[in-house]
Design brief:
Elements (H helix, E strand, L loop, with lengths): L3 H17 L8 E2 L2 E2 H5 L2 E3 L4 H15 L10 E16 L5 E16 L9 E15 L4 H33 L10
Parallel strand pairs: 3-4
Antiparallel strand pairs: 1-2, 4-5, 5-6
Helix pairs in contact: 3-4
Length: 181
Amino acid sequence: MWSSKLKISCLMGALLFLGACGFRPLYGQSGGQTALSDLSSIRIEPIADRLGQELHNNLLDLLTPQGRPQKPRYSLKIKLSQSKKTLAVQKSAFATRANLIIRAVFSLSAVGVGAAATEEVLLSGESSIISSYNILDSDFATVIAERNARTQAVRELADNIRIRLAVYFTQNLQRTPSPKP
C-alpha cells in the first residue's frame, strides 16, 4: 500500500512535469480571451440535405449554446459527403455488416465588414468518421441501425470539427481579425 506522502509526492511531480512541458488547457484563458469566446462568434452557414441539417444543429449546440452570434467574426462553411460499404459477406453473398463513411470538408473565414469585403480563409480541413452497423434479417431493424449509426457519426463529426476549431483558436495569437473598412 502506498503511503500518503508518496502519493502526494507523485502528484506534485506530475503537476510540475505538466507545467514544465508547456501544457495549456484547450479552453483556458490566454490574454483575457478563451477559445470558447471565439467559438461562440462563429456563424455556421447552412449545410445541404438532412444530414447537413443534423450536423448544423449539432454544431450550433456545441459552438453557440447561448444562441446565434449577433455580430459574428467568423463564418464556417461545410460540404458533406457520405458513402456506405458492405463488409462481412456470408457464403450466400449477403452482407451482415456495413460501414457508413461521412466526410466533411470545412473552411473557417474571417467575416469582413462592408459591401466589398472579402472573406479571408483562416482554416480549412476535412474530417471523416466511419460508423459501423449490422445488416439484419429485418429491414426495419437495419434501417434503425443505419439511422443510429448516422446520428452517432454526425455527433462525432461535429465534436471533431469543434476540437479542430478550438485548437486553431488556442494556437493562433492573432485571435481577433481586424475589421476591414
